[in-house]
Amino acid sequence: MPDDQEESHAVPDPIYRIEKLIHRYNGQPVLEIDRLTVAPSSILGLVGPNGSGKSTLLKLMAFIFQPTEGRILFKGEQAFPFDEAIRSQVTLLTQEPYLMKRTVFNNVAYGLKVRGERGDWRQPAHDALNLVGLDAETFSRRQWDELSGGEAQRVALAARLVLKPLVLLLDEPTASVDAASSELIRSASLRARSEWGTTLVIASHDRQWLHDVCDEVIHLFKGKLAGSGRSNMIFGPWAREDDEVYGKRLDDDQRLLVSVPPSADATAFLDPGDIRILGERETVDNSTTKVVQGTVIRLALEKRSGNLFADVRIGSLILVVRVAESRLATMTLHRGWPVSLAYRPANIRWR
Ligand SMILES: Nc1ncnc2c1ncn2[C@@H]1O[C@H](COP(=O)(O)OP(=O)(O)OP(=O)(O)O)[C@@H](O)[C@H]1O
Predict the structure, then answer these.
(1) Of 134, 216, 318, 321, whose CB is crowded by the most CB atoms within 10 A?
(2) Is the preceding omega at residue 262 within 30 degrees of 0, hence cis?
(3) Burial zone of 188 (CB within 10 Å; 0-12 exposed, 13-18 middle, 19+ buried)
(4) Distance CA 87, CA 181 (A)
(5) Helix/strand/coil (H, E, C) string of the chain?
(6) Is the CB–ligand 1 distance for residue 231 below 6 Å?
(7) What is the ipTM of this complex?
(8) For residue 203, how far is its CA from the centre of ligand 1 (angstroms)?
């Protein structure tokens, strides 16, 4: 979580503390994060458009390379690439699985071997395969190239889970797999957190998944943390609608109307406190306020502030809405309920 936001009193030492980090490729800055901490056993989500720096941040958190400037403390200590202690505790799963040209069993057991674990690797390797929904008896002897894309990704995940890692970094882990594999990858990752207290950091374009499972979701935009953990970031392209108004058509055919964007593909930021769930008989001034219809998909209480946040799905867009305490007295909210959201285009900030 960004340090200036939701630091709660009773948090243990962070598993990561990032300080004044800048990373450049060929002299060009692609990531600039002043401060960011990740609590142990938490689930942090990373969202952001293509090229916003998510993969770079995950690779830095995996200590694959060093940041150009600044530092990343791991459990309070500065850590470096090729540090053996880190390698056995932090593991990264990327979108395209990398498997060694060996059997599935040897791929999964490899980490145990490298870690110098003695004894029989069969049981832990089989447990890890079963955890990702692959029958160990059937798959253990298969070669790396006798697997579908989804199975290969699950083997790659099993090869990480077998180590019961302290940190599992997931970079678009389900982007190129089928729906069934995707579900198995998600549930196995969550099992790691619930069984071993593994900290998860997940970069994904699947906002709904992140909103469902993450303790915190942070937004990266052009390499920087953008807005609060619960800010709404709405991507273009924006088109001029009739009547001099700009907006975009959502995939449920509603129109999301906005103020004049600086360019057709600018990104709109709308604070959760600037969106209101309308009461049943409430009306709005159409000239300044716009209304869209959605469905509540999640309600979450922020412990520090006592604020209630509702995630509302509108087509494939999810907006986070802060529900003021005064409004809670007058309305009941449930997951699955249809709601009308009111917002003022004038409150949109553009980047
Ligand atoms: N090895 C590299 N050398 C030079 N530039 C790089 C390298 N890796 C990434 N970049 C650039 O750094 C920026 C951030 O890339 P990164 O892959 O971290 O973004 P991302 O948010 O993960 O994107 P995506 O969602 O498309 O995976 C991009 O502009 C990218 O072109």
Answers:
(1) 321
(2) no
(3) buried
(4) 26
(5) CCCCCCCCCCCCCCCEEEEEEEEEECCEEEEEEEEEEECCCCEEEEECCCCCCHHHHHHHHCCCCCCCEEEEEECCEECCCCCHHHHCCEEEECCCCCCCCCEHHHHHHHHHHHCCCCCCCHHHHHHHHHHCCCCHHHHCCCECCCCCHHHHHHHHHHHHHCCCCCEEEEECCCCCCCHHHHHHHHHHHHHHHHHHCCEEEEECCCHHHHHHHCCEEEEEECCEECCCCCCEEEECCCEECCCCCEEEECCCCCEEEECCCCCCCCEEEECHHHEEECCCCCCCCCCCCEEEEEEEEEEEECCCCCCEEEEEEECCEEEEEEECHHHHCCCCCCCCCEEEEEECHHHCEEC
(6) no
(7) 0.97
(8) 13
CA-closest residue to ligand 1 atom 2: 25
Q: Give span(s): CATH 3.40.50.300, the chain.
A: 16-225
d(CA 148, CA 185): 14
- For 93, the token pair is 């799963």
- What's 233-350's CATH class? mainly beta
Confidence of residue 120 (pLDDT cuts 50, 70, 90): confident
Tokens of 226: 């953008």
Q: Which CATH superfamily is domain 16-225 in?
A: P-loop containing nucleotide triphosphate hydrolases (3.40.50.300)
Q: Which residues lie below 8 Å from residue 85, measured CB to CB, with a gap of 6+? A: 79
Distance 121 CA to ligand 1 centre (A): 37
In the chain, ranges of CATH 2.40.50.140 domains: 233-350
Residue-wise pLDDT tens digits, 301-342? 765 567 788 989 998 888 999 998 777 777 888 889 999 999
Q: What pTM was computed for the model?
A: 0.77
